[in-house]
Amino acid sequence: MFAKKTIDDDTWDDLEDALISADFGPDLTDAIVAELRAKVARYNTTDPADLQRMLREGIEERLVRFDTTLKLSERPAVVLVVGVNGVGKTTTIGKFARFLRGYGRTVVVGAADTFRAAAVEQLATWAERAGAEIVRPQQQGQDPASVAFQTIERAKAQGIEIVIIDTAGRLQTKGGLMDELTKIRRVIEKQATIAEVLLVLDATTGQNGLAQAEAFVQHAGVTGLVLTKLDGSAKGGFVLSVQERTGIPIKLVGQGEQIGDLTGFTPHVFAQQLVG
Amino acid sequence: MATFGTLSDRLSDTFRNLRTKGRLSASDVDGTVREIRRALLDADVALDVVKEFTGKVRERALGDEVNKALNPAQQVVQIVNEELVEILGGQQRRLEFAKKPPTVIMLAGLQGAGKTTLAGKLAKWLKKDGHTPMLVAADLQRPNAVTQLQVVGQQAGVEVYAPEPGNGVGNPVKVAKDAIKEAERRQFDTVIVDTAGRLGVDAELMKQAGDIRKAVDPDEVLFVIDAMIGQDAVATAKAFQAGVDFTGVVLSKLDGDARGGAALSVASVTGRPIIFASTGEGLDDFEPFHPDRMASRILDLGDILTLIEQAQEAFDEDEARKVAEKFATDTFTLDDFLGQMQQLRNMGSIKKMMGMLPGAGGMKQQLENFDEREIVRTEAIIQSMTKAERVNPKLLNGSRRLRIARGSGMTVTDVNQLVTRFEQAAKMMKTVAKGGMPNVPGMGPIPGAGFSGGRGKQQAKKKGSKSGNPAKRAAENAAIASGAKSTTDAAASGGSGFGIGGAKGSAPAAPSAEEMAALQRFMR
Predict the structure, then answer these.
(1) Is A117 in Cβ contact with B151 (below 8 Å)?
(2) Is B165 on the interface with A (CB under 8 A)?
(3) Other CB atoms within 10 A of residue B344 CB
(4) Are the Cβ atoms of A231 and B114 closer than 8 angstroms?
(5) What's the CATH code of the domain at B140?
(6) Are B262 and B225 in contact (CB under 8 A)?
(7) Is there a domain that residue B379 lies in?
(8) What CA–CA distance (Å, rounded) separates B24 from B34?
(9) Burial class, A190, CB count within 10 angstroms (exposed 0-12 / middle 13-18 / buried 19+)
(10) Looking at the domain assignment, is residue B298 inside a domain?
């Protein structure tokens, strides 16, 4: 698309196709294309390379409007991890615990996913790999809020700096489960202020990501997004709409199944990957 | 996205301007196609698939079937739906079992698509059908996937073959291979192989999946895909088709609110049928895939198709024809009217029916005002009449009316009102059935307007709303011109004066707001 000599009608069509294929969604695509058309007209350029640069800058601009740093200054700093089923919450927690251990922080994880089969064991394996403590439910199907409560209690008693709470995956349409999340939040807040609520989003998700984000923001008070599975062929363009609609920044990016495959979010790099 | 309303609403908007024109022009159709394109993209259907699809729809929408339809918007939605169902369900089929057991079913898909959960559901489902399934833990990658499968297997009450502990230890190809021997030895008739999640771009893991496939020679390879997946569905599906050549697709997490356009993309790009839908976290939340429901879901059509079906079922075509004849020959009696009303009741609660319409949200208040018992009362009045009175309402003098009122527990005023309304309507229907334009009160629908078309009008409750709809006039004229066919078409337009015949005729249309309003007016 950008290899051609001049910008013509095909370029615009190709651009639109490319944005839609990257899951930007029809609305944002229209907005971006209109913006670029205006810019191209203003600068009177016909060079596709300029267009590519403008696109990259435009996306970067949209991304840097929000502060992407994690705020973990309280002690203990409580991080609640939420999301729909199968987006990679537990894996992200494992990687995140390791990430924090890398900075010499002590970490305890709370296995509050008491619903899915073997979720506790899965988290335990990750905790062991990351060198973090784990608080398990005392019995099968225990109230997740109580597990979260006990985890923070443990952190306070042992002076552990960072608490990460895993929750069961839930589809945003399940009212009862979303209320459970609100309850977990409420119970945690009795013990400590919540530093971050991270919503994990799968990069392969399409426009439904928006509905997910809106529901979780409403019920769990999300403060940051984690985009996982970016090592695949999906570009995850929908997060731009999510960011714009909810005003919540992307804070972490997951790019593989290994424990080191988690990085902070850099708008510049992300825009580069999206546009090329 | 809900903020843009449903596709049918949007299409109605697009078509609203068409009431002044008799035909659809190419540019009208282009506008419609643009809306469809957007709706599909919002539903995450892959771009290439959308392009091809809209091309087809455009072609058909420019054809005669739309132009001749009384309600072009509905007709276009119908076309879109038909095309969708064709792609989704052209090759609908069931699981294939091997002639010589064990039948081997292999599951493959991205991480987090829901393979392990599905393995449990499938096993339970097969067990219920009298099979003896065995689960094989060949996901040795994800921490404790093996444990998860064991738990799931226990819940489903089936055997789990898990020789390796997993967490990166063991060779999945070997496990899968051994599992088949084990199944033969212990006489399990189906083997379900759960594999690790892998990305389409991960060449090494794709090769491993291919190796597992070769090792177990499965009868079915099911590709499990998340209903929430976006444009990447195509790339992923293609990669998996190249890597493991799946034979069928399972759509998971359909209990969410994703519109699931991926189903369309995958079915269209790979030509592989969608066999199952997975709709929840419980082991029983699993069902064979219904292409038609999925089509409505992608289009965000609400339950309109169910509604159309119900309407079609409830209205006996012969009955409608007879009624139309009676209109034309002025022999429509209160008995026929009673019959029509009972047909309407057969469709179930009117409020519920209205609720199925995607655009019905705005009509809530009117729905609240509609008293379903009104029909029952009217029925009572008619049933309190003698046969002779029903055939010839002119017989009804003061004392007869008093008797009827007492018999039905209503007042004489109610009886008078019913008779007046019936006479007016019968007169109007006669005019319509003969092809003229009615100009009497109680005029019903404007077929071209769709569901949300004329809301303003019905609130105004003006007598004789402007029915100068050329599309309708043209259709009626055509019906008369074609002679023999005229009764059926007249039934379509004639019956709808009572708000009950609207679902008949060439374009199956749901009873519209106006029709309901007309009915309501009539009843009072």
Answers:
(1) yes
(2) no
(3) 21
(4) no
(5) 3.40.50.300
(6) yes
(7) yes
(8) 15
(9) exposed
(10) no
pLDDT attached to residue B488: 36
* Per-residue model confidence (pLDDT) at position B439: 43
Q: Which CATH class is domain A77-275?
A: alpha beta
Domain map (residue ranges) of chain A: 9-64, 77-275
> Which residue in chain B is spatially nearest to A235 when comparing CA positions?
B232
Annotated binding site of B for GTP: 109-116, 194-198, 252-255
pLDDT < 70 stretches in chain A: none
Architecture of domain A9-64: Up-down Bundle (1.20)
The answer to whether the Cβ–Cβ distance between B231 and A122 falls below 8 Å is no
pTM of the model: 0.70
- Domain finish residue from B55, B89, B123: B89
What does chain A come to in residues? 276
Which one of B40, B111, B152 would you mutate to disrupt binding with A, by most A Cβ within 10 Å of its Cβ?
B111
Residues B196, B120 share a domain: yes
Give the single-character DSSP code of B229.
Answer: B
Give the integer Cα–Cα distance in Å for A140 and A125: 18
- The sign of the torsion formed by the CA atoms of A273, A275, B3, B6 equals negative
CA distance B420 to chain A (A): 51
Q: In this structure, are B110 and B219 located in the same domain?
A: yes
CB pairs under 8 A between A and B: 152
Say yes or no: B175 and B274 in one domain.
Answer: yes
Answer yes or no: do B274 and B333 share one domain: no
The number of domains in chain B is: 3
And the tokens for A144? Answer: 């997740």
Which one of B89, B119, B154 terminates a domain? B89
CA-nearest residue of chain A to B47? Answer: A21
Backbone region of residue B507 per phi and psi (left: phi > 0; alpha: psi in -120 to 50; beta: other values) = beta
ipTM field: 0.88
What average pLDDT does chain A have?
Answer: 92
The CA dihedral of B510, B516, B517, B518, to the nearest 10 degrees, is: 90
The mean predicted confidence, pLDDT, of chain B is 73
- The answer to whether residues B275 and B138 belong to one domain is yes
For residue B34, the domain's CATH number is 1.20.120.140
Q: Is A233 helix (H, G, I), strand (E, B) or coil?
A: coil
DSSP string across B241-303: HHHH--SEEEEE-TTSS---HHHHHHHHHH-PPEEEEE-SSSTT-EEE--HHHHHHHHHT-TT
